[in-house]
Amino acid sequence: MSTTPNRNFWNIEASHIAKNTYNPIRSIVENIVTEPNPNKLMIALSIGDPTTFGNLKPAREVIEAVKESIESGLFNGYAPSTGYQKAREAVAEYSSNEFVKVDPKDVILCSGCSCALDLCITALARPGQNILIPRPGFSIYRTLAEGLGIKVKSYNLLPEYGWEVNLDDLEAQIDENTAAIIINNPSNPCGSVFSRGHLADLLEIAARYYVPIIADEIYEHMVFPGRSFHPLASISVDVPILSCSGLTKRFLVPGWRMGWIIIHDRQNILDKEIRKGLQCLSQRIIGSNTIVQGALPAILQNTPQKFYDDVIETLFEHSRLAYSHISKIPGLKPIMPDGAMYMMVYINLACFTEFKSDLEFVQCMLMEESVFCLPGQCFDYPSYIRLVITVPKDMLVEACLRIQDFCERHHCKTSQTINELGRIEIEY
Question: Helix crossing, 290-302 with 85-95: angle to 10°?
Fold first, then answer.
């Protein structure tokens, strides 16, 4: 016999997941009340979207592949929740190399790499357990985990060593409740690229404590000359790895929302529960974009190497340009990236005594110079700012000049000393 609830007023509460979900970047950015200088064109070095300014465009072959997918009329309905077989085969072929052979059955297509990360964290960790994430690191790891009641513990990266992982600190964070380690390589926000030897060291720690790894490799292959990208799974023998990637960054189509998980499990450790768990979770949103799935084989097979090379050449040139200029600005110390789309810059706040934090520095620079960078607080790393290097070259040069002007005005040296420094000449 049913009982009628005794309600005489509206009382609709948000769920625990909704209440506990928090995105540090969105929260910090949306609470900045400072307005840009109306007399200067806004230059946003804060947006991790390579398409924002229109100077970086997807390859013609990518556009044609989507057109053909639409015109075929074959991809307007629902697909299997883990993706069409042909699309999964294309990802498996694209992700295979001389060290690892990917089977299509190990591929799960997702609505972007963030969705892939969400499924992996949800499948591996339970409320009360913890996952380990890098510091500095992309805030979405914390957002996804804490909303589910999963604790987050951070392990430190070392700026003086190209943002390599502090191995002792990583090991110290592992306890009996650690469900997974997230490794982000190449890195957002650092632009670092780990060597094969360093990745082997990380795997040795994970193997010693029997902890699986979630590999965020959305910037795979986006490395600068002299560096190489090593997929973590190509090195692992014992450690099960869930590798997350997609079209977003390398193919310059973040809005298309096409990502994937690849299950690397040579010892069949994940077969007991995790593989099925990922398949079940993929059914919550009934699969990813079918039009893009239909185009995926052609996108992954036909995009010319020259397209990839041109993008890398542009990002490398921009990173060298920014590094050269900013390294000459008193009070700032940039760390040259080895890949991805970002550069971290240290702010010596002792040289800017009117600012108590990186956030205050960023707010004032936005107000005076209309240049906006993300403060290190967004990545759990105070006293830094992150620059996005995908903006057009002329805008990047202008931004560097404005940052210089701002720092010279607010640097705590005497005005005479500042004048002696002179204006940094921008050559390009």
Answer: 30
